[in-house]
Specification:
Order of helices and strands of chain A: HHEHHEEH
Helix content of chain A: 55-70%
Oligomer: homodimer
Structural class of chain A: mainly alpha
Radius of gyration of chain A: 17 Å
CATH class of one domain in chain A: Mainly Alpha
Mean pLDDT of chain A: 94
Strand order of the largest sheet of chain A: 1-3-2
Largest interface: A-B, 46 and 46 residues
Chain lengths: 119, 119
DNA sequence: TCTATATTTCTGCAATTATCGAAATATGAA
DNA sequence: TTCATATTTCGATAATTGCAGAAATATAGA
């Protein structure tokens, strides 16, 4: 008996989450996300990030472009500065997805292993 | 005033989580993880996975190698078959890390946006 | 106002590195 | 040996990195 293949829409969703994971899938970019979350909601300008990551500025710029294009960060200009902030809606979606896959849709992990329920 | 840089150990941890995100950072590999979680704890043999993912078998093999090398799956031989299973310990670590960064260490997201607390 | 200069960050391109897939190889069972 | 399952090898294609230069904005001085 053949099982129905996953809906197109579902596969698109998975592809989108995969792209987000990929965006967080290098040490510099994951570190950048940590910094932006620490500075949330104010965010950081590029120069502030630059001081923390020890990579050339053009490389940093490429990394920020990647995070932006996958929707994990937002940017706005402040005169000559560009201020980056974590996109919490996107992170929430991604975290819910991972939590759901591991703990809800399948019961591979127990919720209480991740989070203290009812402190 | 200068802030102390992150400890070496901490950066290594971040690099490891980044590698795990990278391993889940393509549609086929994320799909494979979904399949293995759905089939947990029994797991699946390569042929079973092959039927679901519509990619050449050599490519599938490369993807499985990547997931294995980042510790997201375990493998054991069953005669001529290789049976892959999700490594729930690794997934738990990764999920805890992401949850912690978003909801605990920084309060960028509210826990109740991810999980129903106290059903 | 116009020009020059300084500051911040991005973009273009070339070298390196990683990924994909066809063909060949390995592994185990009968 | 032969068949079935899955990996490994290796060349072609694509992505990443970082240097050099450009773009955007602000400010000062003529």
């Amino acid at each position: 008996m053949k099982v129905a293949p996953p809906a197109r829409k579902t596969l698109d969703q998975v592809a989108r989450y995969a792209d987000m994971f990929s965006a967080m899938g290098t040490e510099p970019r994951l570190r950048i996300m940590q910094l932006l979350l620490s500075a949330h909601p104010a965010g950081l300008v590029v120069g502030d990030i630059q001081e923390e990551v020890d990579i050339p500025n053009s490389t940093l710029s490429h990394h920020l472009e990647k995070l932006k294009s996958e929707g994990l960060v937002n940017v706005r200009r402040e005169s000559t500065f560009l201020r980056y902030t974590a996109n919490t809606e996107a992170l929430q979606e991604l975290l819910r997805f991972l939590y759901s896959e591991c703990c809800t849709r399948n019961q591979a992990l127990k919720p209480e292993e991740i989070i203290r329920i009812c402190k």
